[in-house]
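The aim of this short unit is practical: by the end, you should be able to scan a pair of folded records and say something sensible about each. We start with the first protein, listed as its amino acid sequence and then its structure tokens.
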Amino acid sequence: LARAALGAGAGQTLVCDTTSVNLYQLCSAAIRSMPERNKVIVDSANFPTDRYIVAGLAEQLGKEVITLDTDGSGGPGAVKIDSQNEVISVEALRPLLSSDVSMITLQAINYRSGAKQDIKGINALAREFGVLVVWDCSHAIGSIELDFEKNGVELAVGCTYKYGNSGPGSPAWLFVAKALQTKLRVPIQGWFAQDKQFEMGPFFEPADTIRRYQIASPSIIGIRAVEVAFEMIERAGISNIQQKAQLGTKLMVDLHKQWLEPLGFGLGSPEDPSKRGGHIILTHPDAKQIAGALRKFKKVVPDYREPNSLRLAISPLATSYQEVYEGFKRLRDLVASGDYK
């Protein structure tokens, strides 16, 4: 998985548990590693699980949450920042960093807008202040080149069932750079993390490798599905997959301009293909009704997002350009005819 999709060397990645469990483990470890620092940062457009876990950890550990309000929804300690398509710029983030911040957690690709964050720039900025960044790559892995080593990623989590195509509920993954592996302690100390695991000793003595971050017996059948899926991703090549994702979403944007904009649709994603992942989001006052009608009458499966958005994706290994065209044609016809009502 690391070699095929993360641009990371061996011995730093585990396929295990769920994204939520892995995020809790790494965020907790990052915060606890700097007990003298009192603030943690998340953004308002982050995936709900991420925001809720950060809020829960802050409450448990007596820390203050700063929520970068990029979409107007607010949140604990909300601070409004200038943002387009939920993007967080280095310039907007800098004034909020200090020696009192221990951790930031952001999405590599935003789950709604599909916008790609400046991973390299944010990591470099965080290092200036000694802040750890935990990246959620669930909507990025398998659709873009993440280049962890080139971009200076130290901590990350993600799922395998979106662009990873490993099946619903397949095991998630976590990444810890070697330089950090012996410096952090996760809160759930399972027996798979024990150095001499099968001695069944009376005291917890963690391994000094990536196994330090594993909890217990993994899903062997689930891991087999992940292995098969990422073998296919490696054979196809992540650069080729990214290129197809960019072309596929460009086709979506072009069809939106020609067909859907006149019908009252708006685009909530960056227009530049290099600044987004494998999905876009379209807005419409009747989005919820349209989404239901697309499923029922047109056999097209969109993803409705509150309050007024349709999320549409190309999974590059599985979806053809012709299918993208046909899906948008059905959407156009449904709305133009008024049948969705």
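Turning to the second protein, read its sequence before its tokens, just as you did above.
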Amino acid sequence: MNVAPCQLKPELRKEGRQSASVPCTVLWDGLYEYATIRDISIYGAQLEGFCFPRIGTRISIIAEGLEICATIIWLGANKCGVLLACEVDPVTFIRRHSIRAITPTEPSPVNITQISFRRYA
């Protein structure tokens, strides 16, 4: 038996994808799923989560106050691909949503006052 060597499919997308790790919420038909945007291009994105609707379902993706309408175009194990309803600049999207400044927060001062024997407020 002859086995053909494995060949990778050529990339057919016109626009490149940018890797991301942006938490989001996916909404459809009154249901929701917490997910992560794993990559994004000008017209599409790959989402990672646990339970997505069937192919062809229109969804809303919400990430930090941004809402993007999309349609599910493929499903995989804990992943799906979406076609975005409008163009998104992937580099700008990732800059705004993937990188968050981490600033140490100091705890608020607390004043404890004894109001009676072994009782504090």
